Amino acid sequence: MSKNHFDLNKLYQTHKVLVYNVALNYLQNIEDAEEVTQDVFVKVYQSLDSFKEESHIKTWIYRITINQSLDLIKKKSTKKSFFSFGRKSENEYEYNNSSDFEHPGILLENKEDAKVLFETINTLPENQKTAFILAKVDGLSNPEVAEIMEMSISAIESLVFRAKNTLKEKLSNKFEEYRKKK
Amino acid sequence: MKKEDFIENILNSTNGITKVNPNEDLLSKIQAKLEDEKPAESYTKWLVAASILILVSLNIGILANTKQKSNQNHELSDLVKTTDNQLY
Fold first, then answer.
1. What is the reported pTM?
2. Which CATH number fits domain A3-181: 1.20.140.160, 1.10.8.420, 3.50.30.10, 1.10.540.10?
3. Which residues contact A138 (CB under 8 A, 6 or more apart)?
4. Which end of chain A is more exposed for a tag (fewer CB within 10 A), N or C?
């Protein structure tokens, strides 16, 4: 596909909400989500010539967004762990940006609960986190998630199921803490 | 509050989530990034091309020089061959 087929403005207007929201759900930080959105469009525009149209452009953009988000998380975690010692989290790349993050798209009455949810999502293993965000937060169907993650539908179902169970377990521990505080 | 309710409330807290629009100036930032990368790209290309040209010219120069020197050596050795090493 050549760059002549797409001008940047059209490409941006069509996919900006998709890219920004996936990055925001992943990174839970507005500045980071904006940085990733910029990097994604630069990368997409520069790689348009190598896009082979084997998959839908939307799927391709989803993959680039997820990879860019994961790269930023890894970059930030490496910087942090370089100076910190001690026990590592279950998820090596646990991202701690979310502590005070209030997702601008969440309903007002759910803001406090969503804060806890995003904080807990960050402790999930990478694959479970991706599957859960795409299926449960971004609202994609399992076949769509399967195409993006290049896995079978049953594998995605299993990932989402495991993610939910892990979240329930962790939230159960949080409930005990919450009850003790009260 | 029951534990199950607490967990369900949190798991369902993203229900009704709305998509958020990015800042309006993001497109101009992307365009600026793309522009910034263009000259650097062509500068690198020219730098590589110039380096190759210099290397090739140097090689040609060295080869020509070596050939000239070896020709001179041949002339000298031919001169030695023609003499019969006799001292008069």
1. 0.74
2. 1.20.140.160
3. A21, A22, A25
4. C
